[in-house]
Amino acid sequence: MRYLSAIIVLDFPAVVTTGWWDDFSNNLATDLAPFISLLGEQPTKQFLSESITHWDEFIFAMAPLRILTVIVYVIRVRGGASLRAFIGRT
Predict the structure, then answer these.
(1) Where is the signal peptide (predicted)?
(2) Which 8-state DSSP code applies to residue 14?
């Protein structure tokens, strides 16, 4: 029985999990960098200080993605050959 329990323990590797707070704090600088570069430091600080609900933060997080998506779509439709080649569409 002792050997069976040793085999069972050796079969399952140790799993290390981190909490969501650790992930958030580790990625804080990389998460905020696109917002600051797209909008500027002062508007970013102002919006974050005035946000009331989590929906405000969600909208703020999704806005830069939509801006980049629209730019890529416009380049695909109306852009020249060099711009389409730059984004990977010929």
Answers:
(1) 1-19
(2) -
Instruction: Report phi then psi at 15, rounded to 5.
Output: -110, 125
List the chain domain ranges: 17-87
User: In this predicted structure, what is the pLDDT of residue 57?
Assistant: 75
Phi first, then psi: what are they for 45, rounded to 5°?
-65, -40
pLDDT in tens, 43-76: 767 777 887 888 877 777 776 666 777 777 778 8
| The pLDDT of residue 3 is above 70 | no
Measured distance CA(64)–CA(39) in Å, rounded = 9
CA pair distance 69, 74, nearest whole angstrom: 9
Amino acid at 84: R
